[in-house]
Design a protein that fits this description.
Elements: E1 2-3, H1 16-22, H2 32-36, E2 60-67, E3 82-86, E4 89-91, E5 93-99, H3 104-107, E6 120-122, E7 133-139, H4 145-160, E8 168-173, E9 177-184, H5 187-196, H6 221-226, H7 233-273, E10 279-285, H8 309-321, E11 324-330, H9 347-351, H10 354-379, H11 392-402, E12 406-411, E13 422-429, E14 435-437, E15 441-443, H12 474-482, E16 495-507, E17 524-533, E18 541-542, E19 548-561, E20 566-579, H13 580-589, E21 591-600, E22 605-613, E23 619-625, H14 626-637
Length: about 650
């Protein structure tokens, strides 16, 4: 797999951890950023000639998995054993390192979390300083319910025998993506998640059959219609029309599932973006409606995505930058043709004997297509696919072991320019019998240049009274989804927020700038929300004078009730025009912003605060319970009692 180098932003001396430990939450007037920031109308997309000032490098990083004929990882290879090519031209390897499965004592080591003051929350996530982390994705959108139950049982078995120190996070995907458990090596915590079942199993509304599997569905309308069939030409014509309708409906449902799947992967990539190191995505699914990799053999590698090309391209880029290796596991296990289940009537075969051959061919073609997608997905990311196996627990063990053994190879392209085209990569080893898995190329989009998409505001459209615009771009939709209640917290911009109640409450009016649902009623408790965002992940562009620089960042606070209904929001776009010394101070101290939001005093509510870089298209978000905030405030207001 390869770290998608468009190019990689080299880390500045301040790490996210150091940023969290060093920054303090200040009032809006206390920082250079806030002094320069002002409310602003949406800005047009920046000029193509506007240079960026991020410190960057064209270093391309590849994670390469090498296995022998038995599929076992190969160790001990040297840099001289590898040759790397970009667009068919050999490249000089500048860095080479082998990664091996680490002892449990090494894997379990985590960097310390900085001590946060009461009422301060962050989207920073700790991961091991060495070794990869593992993400388990439970895909109920594309998996029959019966298969989900088997996956559930197999995962519980995996947790029972999980190697000490193995770091795992669990996500669930339906129409939305949900983080069920962040990275942990504690098996008891993981068991509690699986035993809760809530969110881990859900019947898909877009599969034909959630019992027998989507290959070989229950009796369809045409199947039932055929029961009363005969040789009447009018009947045959009507049956053909019904079958055509069913085919079109199935195609439509497949497209919808593909779009939901793409949206979820985009959110997952944004969550993983801020985490260092390699991530192994272990994806349980009963049907893979989309190949998340571009086809490098085509003139347009993303042509198959049609109207979703921009989002598809962005998702692939984010996953590559995040060092994600995909391990697809067919949740259906070893399959048989479901068209001949006893529960089906079989009437259509009596009416048309040729349908038997057609259904058999359809089953094998569809299965082969899905397995081919899984195999390509794994091969092109440095992962491994598991198909036609009922040993799903063993598949997880193998995926984690496989994903912990790889080689990192880096190079500077000999002739690199930001032409926006797809640049193919190929890697060879001296022993031709060995098999290599890695990412096959990258799009040469300048990460410091203006984005391909218009820099439109995102959060301003996410209000309790807004109506979704059907013409909005896929990017706007995915950013809106990233701010939904319960969605994974994106980490592209590492940030922390301090939330505290203001005054005794019982206010009858909303705070300035709040946009509440018309059904929302007072009295209200007002809360202050103070941000400290890592400015190194925000893109500055130079102004025409060449001496000052501009950054445009949206800040938003959304309040949800405990049912996930959005009841109030506030959004502000801040534009900072600063000179070089001020910019340097902002890069060290972070960007600070202050907002106030009103929340009904009756009920239980959740607050989600987010920051979105309008130019670089990066974002961060923090979600927290206001019940916890109120408890912290009450404890702080209670005077200590003398010990007796």
């Amino acid at each position: 797999m390869f770290r998608f180098a468009t190019p990689d932003l080299r880390p500045l001396p301040i790490t996210p951890l150091a940023f969290l430990a060093a920054t303090c939450l200040l009032a809006v007037t206390a920082s250079g950023w806030a002094q320069a920031a002002q409310d602003s109308a949406p800005l047009p997309a920046p000029s193509q000639n506007v240079p960026a000032i991020h410190v960057t490098t064209t270093l391309v990083e590849e994670d390469v998995t090498v296995v022998d004929k038995n599929g076992s990882p190969v160790h001990g290879l040297k840099q001289s054993d590898f040759t790397i090519f970009e667009e068919g031209k050999p490249q000089h390897i500048s860095h080479f390192e082998e990664h091996l499965t680490l002892p449990a004592t090494e894997v379990a080591k985590l960097p310390p979390m900085p001590k946060l003051d009461p009422g301060v929350f962050t989207n920073y996530t700790t991961v091991p300083e060495q070794g990869p982390v593992n993400v388990i994705l439970l895909d109920s959108l594309n998996t029959p319910l019966q298969s989900q139950a088997y996956v559930h049982a197999q995962l519980k078995s995996f947790i029972d025998t999980m190697k000490p120190g193995t770091r795992v996070a669990i996500f669930a995907m339906s129409r939305e993506l949900h983080l069920l458990q962040g990275f942990t090596s504690n098996p008891e915590i993981l068991k509690a998640v699986m035993n809760a079942k809530k969110g881990t199993m859900q019947a898909s509304q877009l599969l034909d059959n959630n019992v027998a599997g989507d290959l070989g569905a229950d009796s369809t309308l045409s199947d039932l219609y055929a029961d009363g069939g005969g040789n009447d030409p009018a009947f045959a014509q009507a049956l053909a029309q019904i079958q055509q309708f069913e085919a079109e409906q199935q195609s439509f449902e497949l497209q919808i599932r593909a779009q939901y799947t793409l949206d979820a992967l985009n959110q997952l990539a944004r969550y993983l973006s801020g985490l260092p190191g390699r991530k192994n995505l272990i994806w349980f699914s009963g049907s893979f409606p989309i190949d998340i990799l571009p086809d490098g053999s085509l003139a347009d590698p993303f042509a198959a995505m049609g109207d979703s090309e921009d989002e598809f391209r962005e998702t692939v880029t984010l996953m590559a930058r995040s060092h994600v290796a995909v391990f697809p596991i067919d949740a259906r296990g070893l399959m048989v043709n479901g068209n001949f289940n006893a529960e089906l009537s079989g009437a259509k075969y009596a009416a048309d004997p040729t349908q038997v051959t057609k259904d058999i061919s359809s089953f094998f073609n569809q299965t082969d297509s899905e397995h081919s997608t899984m195999l390509q997905m794994a091969e092109k990311t440095g992962g491994k696919a598991f198909i036609n196996t009922n040993g799903l627990k063993d598949a997880v063990d193998q995926a984690i072991d496989f994903g912990s053994n790889y080689y990192s190879i880096s190079y500077y392209p000999a002739k690199h320019n930001w032409d926006g085209n797809f640049h193919s990569i190929s890697i060879k080893v001296t022993d031709p019998k060995l098999k290599l898995s890695y990412r096959i190329g990258y799009y040469a989009d300048d990460p410091d240049g203006p984005p391909n998409k218009a820099a439109k505001p995102i959060f301003g459209a996410i209000s309790a009274t807004s109506v979704v615009d059907p013409t909005e771009t896929a990017r706007v939709k995915e950013m809106r989804a990233a701010m939904q209640f319960g969605a994974p917290q994106p980490t592209q911009i590492v940030m922390k927020v301090k939330v505290a109640p203001i005054g005794p409450g019982h206010e009858t009016k909303l705070a300035d700038g709040n946009v509440a649902d018309p059904k929302t009623k007072g009295p209200y408790q007002r809360y202050s929300v103070d941000y400290a965002a890592d400015a190194r992940h925000v893109q500055f562009v130079s102004n025409a004078d060449g001496a000052t620089f501009k950054a445009t960042v949206e800040f938003a606070v959304l309040v949800y009730d405990d049912q996930g209904v959005l009841i109030n929001s506030i959004s502000r776009t801040a534009v900072a025009n600063v000179d070089q010394p001020t910019k340097e101070r902002i890069l060290k101290s972070g960007m600070h912003m202050h907002q106030e939001i009103s929340v009904p005093m009756k009920g239980h509510y959740w607050l989600r605060a987010g920051a979105h870089d309008r130019v670089g298209d990066r974002m961060g978000a923090v979600e927290l319970s206001l019940d916890n905030v109120n408890k912290i405030a009450a404890a702080a207001a209670t005077p200590p009692t003398d010990a007796k």
